Amino acid sequence: MAAQTILVVEDEFLIRFMLADSLREVGYRILEAANGVEALDILRSGQTVDLMVTDVRMPGEVDGLELMRRSKSLAPSRPVIICSAHLFEQDVHPADAFLAKPYSIAALADIIARLIGDPWTNDSQTRSA
Question: Where are the domains of the chain?
Fold first, then answer.
């Protein structure tokens, strides 16, 4: 049985590294993307992605909100967590959860567990593009 997979999308390398490393320590399998275009490539690749965590403001033509919309069109049941210091929860519909920056890893891990369960949940809500 494989661990559930989370796609972490964050343009700031140190933040992305810290998030990915912390979630790996919890037990999740992590895929990383530095921008929306990289994330879309992963989502369209056929790799299993059980949940996506994304920043909003990123360089390039696809910001976090557009990435969320495209992810939902590829796999409507795949949960998306939006993280931003510039928006409010009411601005991120149809995201499944919102975290205002700065936030703690514990807060993120709690939301992830609520949305998809622990890393080794047998009834994984596996979502592929």
Answer: 5-116
CATH number of 5-116: 3.40.50.2300
Write out pLDDT tens, residues 28-37.
Answer: 999 999 999 9
Provide the token pair at 18. 């810290």
Q: What is the DSSP letter of 121?
A: -
Q: Which two tokens mark 12?
A: 């700031």
Q: Which residue did the predictor score with more confidence, 91 or 60?
A: 60
Cα–Cα distance measured from residue 91 to residue 50, given in angstroms and rounded to the nearest whole number = 23
Inter-CA distances, 26 with 4, 15, 35, 78, Å: 11, 17, 24, 20
- SS in 3 state form for 34-89? CCHHHHHHHHHCCCECCEEEEECCCCCCCCHHHHHHHHHHHCCCCCEEEEECCCCH
Mean pLDDT estimate for the chain: 90
CA distance 83 to 100: 6
User: What type of residue is 102?
Assistant: P
Which residue type occupies 31? L
